[in-house]
């Protein structure tokens, strides 16, 4: 896993922001990740042969007091 969206949301909330995942979409790797895929596999960051990723949009708003 390259990114942990839920952990990011929790950390933003810990900082006092109202945060949530507002969109997710699975897509094939683009040119940069395709080129780096062998390194990502060797580092244990992706499973061997994996060539897709999940794009996540997180919205975080300052809570008005």
Quick overview:
The protein has about 60 residues and is α+β, with helices and mostly antiparallel strands.
Itemize the secondary structure elements and their pairings.
Layout (H helix, E strand, L loop, with lengths): L4 H10 L2 E12 L2 H12 L9 E11 L3
Description of the molecule:
The chain has helices at 5-14, 31-42; strands spanning 17-28, 52-62. The mean pLDDT is 94. It is built from two helices and two strands; from the N terminus they run αβαβ. It has 65 residues and is an alpha+beta fold. Helix content is 34%, strand content 35%. It has one domain. A two-stranded antiparallel sheet has the order 1-2.
How many β-strand stretches? Answer: 2
- Total of DSSP H or I helical runs spanning 4+ residues: 2
N-to-C SSE series? HEHE
Helical content class: 25-40%
Number of domains: 1
Gyration radius over CA: 15 Å
Sketch the major β-sheet: 2 strands, antiparallel
What is the beta-strand fraction? 35-45%
Side-by-side strand order of the widest sheet: 1-2
**Which structural class is indicated by helix and strand composition?**
alpha+beta
The coarse overall form would be elongated
pLDDT under 50 segments (min length 5)? none
**Average of the residue pLDDT scores:** 94
Distance between the termini: 36 Å
């Amino acid at each position: 896993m390259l990114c942990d969206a839920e952990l990011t949301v929790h950390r933003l909330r810990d900082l006092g922001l109202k945060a949530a995942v507002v969109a997710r979409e699975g897509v094939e790797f683009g040119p940069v990740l395709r080129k780096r895929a062998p390194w990502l596999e060797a580092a244990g960051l992706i499973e061997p042969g994996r060539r897709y990723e999940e794009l996540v949009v997180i919205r975080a708003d300052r809570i008005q007091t």
